[in-house]
Amino acid sequence: MEQKGDGCDDPSAEAPQPARTGTPAEFTASLRALRLWSGLTYRQLEARAGARSDTLPASTIATTLGRVTLPREQFVDAFTRACGLSDEDVREWREARRRIATTGPASATADSDDSPAAPPVGAPARIPRWRRAAGLLGAAGIGVVGTLGVTSLLHASPTPDTLPETAVAGLRMPAVGSWARIHPARTPELCLTEGRDRSGRYATAVAAQRLCTKEALPQVFLEPLSGNAVQIQWHHPKHGIGCLTVLTDGPGRDLIEPRDGCADTDPAQQFRLELLGPAAAARFRIRPAVTGQCLGLRGQDTQDGAEVVHGRCSGAPDQDFLIALTPPPPPPSAADSTRPPR
Predict the structure, then answer these.
(1) Residue 44 CB partners (closer than 8 Å, separation 6+)
(2) Strand 190-195 vs strand 229-236: parallel, antiparallel, or unpaired?
(3) What is the pTM of this model?
(4) Where is this region: Disordered (predicted)?
């Protein structure tokens, strides 16, 4: 394998192997592992692809890697080259994709080369993928261990501690990003995760505080941007990647929802993390770039299920959050690996 991208400093680590994949979902999970192996952010991959005259918008990468269907061959070529693989290795990934496309069920290869490409950076976000929050929250068959299955594919890959740190004050986070849990500082037994608008005015999934152990939660991934800003991604075991997005109008105004149209140029999906107190406390104020205001809890509520909203930075305790970086999620369970694609 060719030496990995600039984001990692251990070129001896073995890259994920496409020959080990047998289904569209496994192939896409292996591409996600390859991205972590490369040590490159979505924006760095976009730039590297552009230097090779390939078109690979960061939003296309996020959308494609969030699916369980087989990516388009053009995407596989551009993505693997951008990750730093040699021409021979790129060919192996292409052949693995063709093998799966010709042997797997037709319903599992929806992203054929004749299908439309994902929208470019800056395109309007599509309707949220997670349409019915209540139904998702009650899906007992979805285990949190089924989020990505990246760990089993990263044979001998470096731990997050071997990656360079990014410029987010108070978080020792790799440049490629990190898995994390976000807790309200007043109620650390709760997590910022998937909930619903208790007023009933907005029907889709929204961000809320819920017991960390109560439901099958989406895994949180922080994608570094610049100036202490991050994109907050939710990796759902069934619905893929959704990026938290601030709603500024309509029936969901002031709420935060996950959208599958991820674009790191969208200020509604950019959140600046402001450190409060010593770095060891990992205590932050979270400020959406689109408004410059602060995230907090509706009505300063401390109850399980309270919605996350954005509003005036008041210094109230409901606007303080704890952020804990976590290891990658474990491999999927047998039940998850056999679940048909959406």
Answers:
(1) 5, 6, 7
(2) unpaired
(3) 0.62
(4) 1-23, 102-124
Please give the distance of CA 162 from its chain centroid, rounded to a whole number.
21
Is 18 within 8 Å of 96 (Cβ atoms)?
Answer: yes
Residue 218: Cβ within 10 Å count? 25
Q: Which CATH architecture has domain 133-326?
A: Trefoil (2.80)
For 75-116, write each residue's pLDDT tens digit. Answer: 999 999 999 999 999 999 999 999 998 885 543 444 544 333
Q: Which two tokens stand for residue 52?
A: 């090779």
Helical axes 73-82 vs 24-38, angle rounded to 10°: 20
Return the domain boundaries, the chain: 18-122, 133-326
Q: Which residue has the tokens 């994109």?
A: 231
Is residue 237 within 8 A of residue 108, CB to CB? The reply is no
Task: Give CA separation, 142 vs 153, 191, 233, 338, in Å.
Answer: 21, 18, 18, 12
Q: Would you call 46 helix, strand, or coil by DSSP? A: helix
